[in-house]
């Protein structure tokens, strides 16, 4: 009965620019099995916790760190010198580095998992691409990216950085994971869910199958542009939520920022050419809610400390970890200006971070805005997504 009802239910008339494409072009090696060789690039909080997750699932994991002492210490003690220092890591992980692995090593891998902050991805992919030496006949490892940001200067999403450095076919095969997932909770095997997306659905399914465990559920989708934008944008709104809490505002104000932030994210994504529905998923509202409401978030913490009156420079130099929202706010500002989308909260975060605006002034200006309709989705011009698709040869 329920199935009949669902079948009869009309599909939403909205279709994103990207969702009109369907791809079936498996370009990576066959589905990694239970003893896949996985190279995790980036031994920060997230790279380490994902390496541990895969090591516990009986995969053979190599964790690349750019710091020789980290590699040495890890292989002797099964602990990381700096991140998640209490944790005893899986015996199935070997640390490698500090140089990036060469061609033979890379081609022996079933999976390359990139947990490198967005601003450093281009330089590393440029070097790795020389070793990967991809031509039409190369069977790629499965490629997974988990960073959440927009590149400063180019305003590029990761999909575009991959296309620029490794070529369109590699970008089409790349898969992306995003969603509410603090490293320190994954490492404790707390129930967690994420979104997985790719331009090539078969590749996204491989990533889902690789990661899916009873304590780590993966939901697959086909809007990687929306998923990437959601992950990058939520970091900017987490800074806003932290700022509000730091200023001493309470629950009403945080709920307002989360909800209006979601409306802004959805409008930006729609104008960009992504599906608005992606922002209702784990990578959108799920991660927005998480990072806007927890002091475990680095981005929230940056905002909180700004609200308490600390300077951005002091916060960044003492945070001890990356807060992607700080650099991403620049790209977001350029994108909303270009698209002509109204995103006043993101604008005010940018003003506080880069133009020295007082946090109280930013809040007052937001509250002084004239009344408006609650949600006016912009027309789906899809300019940036269309440009990106052309770059990917689609
Ligand atoms: N920590 C989390 O809970 C979490 C969850 C989901 C997604 N992410 C995303 O994962 C990415 C990595 O975050 P993280 O938490 O591991 O960051 P982190 O601050 O814990 O670690 C950053 C890592 O980047 C490395 N790094 C710095 N400069 C580099 C360079 N030039 N080239 C290569 N590597 C360099 C550092 O050595 C370090 O290993 C970010 O985009 C973040 O948004 C993090
Ligand atoms: O600590 P943050 O603010 O970078 O957030 C980490 C993750 O993105 C949470 O999903």
From TrEMBL:
Active site residues of this protein: 234 (proton acceptor)
Secreted is among the record's keywords: no
Domain of life: Eukaryota
Keywords (A to Z) from UniProt: NAD, Oxidoreductase
Domain Glycerol-3-phosphate dehydrogenase NAD-dependent C-terminal: 223-363
Record flagged with keyword Oxidoreductase: yes
Domain Glycerol-3-phosphate dehydrogenase NAD-dependent N-terminal residues, every copy: 37-202
Gene3D superfamilies: N-(1-d-carboxylethyl)-l-norvaline Dehydrogenase, domain 2, NAD(P)-binding Rossmann-like Domain
Any GO CC annotation of this UniProt entry: cytosol
Biological process per Gene Ontology, one example term: glycerol-3-phosphate catabolic process
Amino-acid positions noted as binding substrate in the UniProt annotation, renumbered to this chain: 148, 298-299
Binding site for NAD(+): 42-47, 120, 183, 298
InterPro entries: 6-PGluconate_DH-like_C_sf (IPR008927), 6PGD_dom2 (IPR013328), G3P_DH_NAD-dep (IPR006168), G3P_DH_NAD-dep_C (IPR006109), G3P_DH_NAD-dep_N (IPR011128), NAD(P)-bd_dom_sf (IPR036291)
Family, as annotated: Belongs to the NAD-dependent glycerol-3-phosphate dehydrogenase family.
UniProt protein name: Glycerol-3-phosphate dehydrogenase [NAD(+)]
Organism the protein comes from: Roridomyces roridus
